[in-house]
Amino acid sequence: MTAADRAAALFAEKHGGASSAVWSAPGRVNLIGEHTDYNDGFVLPFALPHRTTVAIGPRTDRQLSVATLGSDGHLHDGPVVAIDELRPGNPTGWAAYPAGVAWALRDTGFELGGANLMIVGQVPTGAGLSSSHALECAVALALLNTVHHAPGEPGAPSLGEIARLVQRAENDFAGAPTGLLDQTASLACTEAHVLFFDVRTGDAEQIPFDPRSVGLELLVIDTRVKHSHSESGYGQRRRGCERAAELLELKALRDVASDDLAATLAKLPEDLRPLVRHVVTENDRVRATVDQLRAGRYAEIGPLLTASHVSLRDDYRVSSPELNLAVDTALDTGALGARMIGGGFGGSAIALVPVADRDRVEHAVRDAFERQHLAAPRLFTAVPSAGAGRDR
Ligand code: GLA
């Protein structure tokens, strides 16, 4: 049974009638370009095959009901809330993600009549693979569909506008000060491509990315560890970047020229210098990666991935011992490059490995974690997949 069939069947069971549509949206891997999005910079994500699926049926009483199939195999009923009473803090918990999207849509002027939502999530949670954005994006498209403004319908907002709506839900309702990377990836990525996205201009280019065509695989290593300071650490880095831009009298760190980096750093207090160095060099690494991919030289991106990790570890200081262990072990056993991905402080790393070395790398990582008495990591090969869309 597909996730769409499952969501539709659970919807029918709970609500006693058929859903009007099923939408889904994927989690993501960011190949490179970390902590650059909220600095108006460049990112290079692709969509995972893991998706969150939402069956929806419209209501006319301006109520929103949410339910989800838990990883325990049981149905979890969320609250039923009046669309007009949605505000940050009501509701809380996991329901804040779908409710926040309804709130952002309502606030933007969409006349939502109410809806029943049945959610089936397959994106690993807490793994830094953007499960919350997959949920929010699927809900956004499903709710827009109830007011005839889903992509493809006349007068529909653009994917960029939907990404900003979802960002509002995440920032102002769920209270996470994140950038535009994850929503854009979930909405706009396409199969067998990475998305070269310029956050400032909104320019997006699909670049073919099929590592298997040259005998390589991109391995995801979910450390299954999320450190408690991840949220405060993220906000603190973000504020540091904004402060540096302000001191430099620039709109954002995107505007620091890399050939001027040493002179620029010298103007800043010491504690802000590593943050700026990371952002500026990371934007350069994204552009260098794009150049290699355009030329089909996939193996050449390995050192860029590793340099990104070193910069995130030593300058931006958002890695963790488990992420470093995953990256170092992969590099020691045949990976051409490896790095932590996402916000950091836990979650996942990626490693670019020759197909012939894949199993060796996997075993070495598993052994290394076991030797350090860490929870068993989850490993899988990431295949660039389709972005959000309607399933039925
Ligand atoms: C998280 C945020 C993104 C981005 C990354 C770091 O995934 O949601 O907006 O800032 O961290 O690149």
Explain the overall architecture.
- With about 400 residues, the chain is of the alpha+beta class.
- It has helices at about 5-15, 95-110, 130-145, 160-175, 180-190, 230-245, 260-265, 275-295, 300-315, 320-330, 360-370, and strands spanning about 20-30, 40-45, 45-60, 65-70, 75-80, 115-120, 195-200, 205-210, 215-225, 335-340, 345-355, 380, 390.
- It folds into 2 domains: about 5-205, Ribosomal Protein S5, domain 2, CATH 3.30.230.10; about 210-380, 2-Layer Sandwich (Alpha-Beta Plaits).
- Strands 5-4-6-3-1-13 form a 6-stranded mixed beta sheet, sandwiched between helices. A 4-stranded antiparallel beta sheet has the order 10-11-9-12.
- Helix 2 (about 95-110) packs across helix 4 (about 160-175).
- The protein binds alpha-D-galactopyranose.
- Alpha-D-galactopyranose binds next to helix 5.
Count of domains: 2
Overall spatial form: globular
The helix/strand series, from N terminus to C terminus, equals HEEEEEHEHHHEEEHHHHHEEHEE
The CATH topology label of the largest domain is: Ribosomal Protein S5, domain 2
- CATH class category label of the largest domain: Alpha Beta
User: How many helical stretches?
Assistant: 11
- Which structural class do you get from the secondary structure elements? alpha+beta
**Whole-number average pLDDT?**
96
Return residue spans where pLDDT drops below 50 for at least 5 consecutive residues. Answer: none
Proportion of residues in helical segments: 25-40%
What binds here, in terms of ligands, is: alpha-D-galactopyranose
- How many strands? 13
What strand order characterises the main sheet? 5-4-6-3-1-13
**Which architecture of the largest domain per CATH?**
2-Layer Sandwich
